[in-house]
Amino acid sequence: MLGEPIPSNTEHAISVSLPTWRSNVGYEENEDWVVSKMMTGFFIHPEIKALERTILDKGGSLEEACVTGTAQEVSNSSTNEDMGIHGFVELRYGRNLGSAAIQQAKLAIKQRISGIVCPGEPVTGENTSLISTRKLSANDVYLFPTGMSAIFNAYRIIRSCFGSMKMVEFGFPYLDTLKVLQKFGDGCIFFGDGGEGDINQLEALLESGERIAGLFCEFPSNPLLKSPNLSRLRELADIYKFVIVVDETIGNFINVDVIPYADILVSSLTKIFSGDSNVMGGSCIINPNMPYYKQLTDMATDILEDNYWAEDVIFMERNSRDFASRVFRINKNAEALAELFLKWQPTIVKRVYYPKYDESRENYERCRCKEGGYGGLLSITFSSPDHAIKFYDLVETAKGPSLGTNFTLTSPYALLAHYKELDWIAQYGVESHLIRISVGLEEPEPLLLKFESALRQLVHSGLPEASN
């Protein structure tokens, strides 16, 4: 149902149901028939609003209110009662650690991450600056309330170490990463394609004397699933003395090993590391085998504070215990779904974006772990906008923002992330009617049948197919 949390009856659900294309537009246009029904989503949680009202009643004024807006006042007593029951079940039967075990839970998360992310063999070459082959420890992992907090604090650490210098965003990223680099600091050089041509341009820029402090990239990128050539970027970093920050949220620790190329590795633990879509978190790893390790860790010690909420830690620790086994299952489902969509090219499906079938696959394979797959995210474009809209309305999956959930989640990504800048993203190959699918743990056969059924209905909907 429109506006319900995904999963349903979850007090702190990460996603919210926007079941039709029109409802996504209505959300972006702040139309009351959508926002008045939203119980969760991109607004201040009702409990925080209640705290705000209490503080204001005791001595504040309306001018001091945090935020205003229709959606932010959403509260439903019957729904909250259901959510309370659901929360009790999770706490009672979900094998949560007790509230006294917060520090143990944080350590468990850090050890879980450091145990998976292994530096392996160092990158070697004429210009390498690697100084050791020390393994990661839990002390190299820093936890944050969200993935974007991890990215922002990685940026803070670099800027504090290097001073006033520009940053580079390499490849088309999730929008907030680019906004952070553009809004704060001393400017951002944006290479939106992220291919070999952009590396050539970056190299020429550096050769001309331009200095940068850090380069941020995703592996692979969201939503086009492109994989940058980390080997070449590492060579440039060693020559021109800058830091590489890799966001491996989409690839994830199990599938790809990018730590040999990264000074800092960031991830949104909100996504597949948690999977349950009921808690947020982020991590930042400072690579002990890179030349700026001591400067970065010393700065992190000076400026970072531990503000990861205790209850979030408890839920994140519990959710992530079966992280690896979930990844393998989701990999298989996603690969099978990508193959299904490829069968419908070029009649109604225009393009399938998936690391296995991207022109940058060689870069992905260079970093793919021995048992790793191609991840659980794919994006689809259709032969016309009308086909995309109709397909979205037809497919019978959960529909809303976020990714990495244990259940399949379909989203009109470009519409939600870039509604007011669709012309701008088009120049980087992101179509306005792109649909992104985050694949879950469902049994393969019924999952594929849901999508095949939507595609077959689309064929019989009367919309013209693309001509060969």
UniProtKB/TrEMBL annotation:
It comes from Drechslerella dactyloides. Its cofactor is pyridoxal 5'-phosphate. GO terms for molecular function: cystathionine gamma-synthase activity; pyridoxal phosphate binding. One of its GO terms (biological process) is transsulfuration. Belongs to the trans-sulfuration enzymes family. MET7 subfamily. This is Cystathionine gamma-synthase. Keywords: Pyridoxal phosphate. Pathway: Amino-acid biosynthesis; L-methionine biosynthesis via de novo pathway.
